[in-house]
Amino acid sequence: MITEAVAGAANAIAERLGADFPKTVLVLGSGLGRFGETMEVTAELSYADIPGFPVSTVQGHAGRLLIGTAGGAPVACMQGRMHLYEGYDPQQLAIPVRTFKRLGAERLILTNAAGSLHKTMGPGALMMIEDHINYSGRNPLMGPNDDDVGLRFFDMTEAYDPALREMMQAAAVETGTPLRHGVYLCTTGPNFETPAEIRMFRQWGADAVGMSTVPECLVARHCGLRVAGLSMISNLAAGISPEPLSHEEVMEEGEKTFAQVSALMTAFLKRCAEEDVKGA
Ligand code: HPA
C-alpha cells in the first residue's frame, strides 16, 4: 500500500516538474515556513494535489512542496509537515520521504521548533541535532518491511550524517551564526511536557524536546537518505521556564530568528550544492 502511494506521488511530482528533482530536500518546521519566500520557485505543488500525500492540519504549516533554488542551490522544500499528534497512521508519515528518495533525492534536512532543556540555550538559539531519542513509542517502519527499500534492522549509529554536520558547522561560522549541538528528543505531543518529564529527559541526555523530526529521520535512514537536523529553540521547556508554554510563543520566536536561520540554511544549501558538483 505504501509502495503504491509512493509510486503515485512520485509520478505526480515528476510530471508536474518536468525536470530533475533536487538532491536536497528541506523540511521546514514551525515558524520556518517563510523560508519558501526566499527561494526562486520553479514548481509549487499543494500536498492535496499529490496523490497519497497526507495533508498537514496544523496552523502555520502551509502544506506545499516548493521546488527551485535558494541562493542558487537546488532544493525542494516541504512547507509544512505531518506530525504524529495529528492522528496519522505512523506509516503514512513514510510516504513523503520515500517519495523524495524515489525521485532521486539524497539528503534530507529536517528543521523544527523545540523546547530547550538548558537555561543557557534560550529562545532564539539554534541547535544542530547530533543524535536523537525516540520517545514517541511509535515508528513509521513498524509493519511489513519492503526489502527493496531498506533493511528490516538498520543501523542508526550515525543517523545525522557527520559530513553534513561539518558542512552545517562551517556554514554557521561563515555566516557568524552561533550554533549549539545536541540531542533532540521526540514526543508524540500534542501537549507540552510536564516538569517531571523534562527532568527525566535531561537525565537521559536530551538537550531539546519537540514533536517531529524523528519519524522522518527514521524513514530517511531506512531508505538510505543522508540526514541533517536543526532545532530552532522557541522556549525553555516546562519547569525550566517560569512561564506556561504556548503555540503562539513558538510561532513568534520563529519570526524573530527567521533572518538568522535563513542565512545559515542558505549557506548550508550552497555547501550541499558544492558537494554535488564535486561528487558529480
Ligand atoms: N515541547 C515540545 N515541543 C515543542 C516545544 C516544547 O517545549 N517547543 C516547541 N515545540
Q: How is the topology of this model organized?
A:
Elements: H1 2-17, E1 24-28, E2 40-46, E3 64-70, E4 73-79, H2 94-103, E5 107-116, E6 126-134, H3 162-175, E7 180-186, H4 195-204, E8 208-210, H5 214-223, E9 226-236, H6 247-279
Parallel strand pairs: 1-4, 1-5, 5-9, 6-7, 7-8
Antiparallel strand pairs: 2-3, 3-4, 5-8, 6-9
Helix pairs in contact: 1-2, 2-5, 3-6
Bound molecules: hypoxanthine.
The site of hypoxanthine has 13 residues, from strand 5, strand 8 and strand 9.
Describe the structure.
The chain has 280 residues and is of the alpha/beta class. Helices cover 33% and strands 24% of the residues. It contains six helices and nine strands, in the order αββββαββαβαβαβα. The chain has helices at 2-17, 94-103, 162-175, 195-204, 214-223, 247-279; strands spanning 24-28, 40-46, 64-70, 73-79, 107-116, 126-134, 180-186, 208-210, 226-236. A five-stranded mixed barrel has the order 5-8-7-6-9. It binds hypoxanthine. Hypoxanthine (HPA) is lined by residues 113-115, 192-193, 209-211, 234-235, 237, 245, 250.
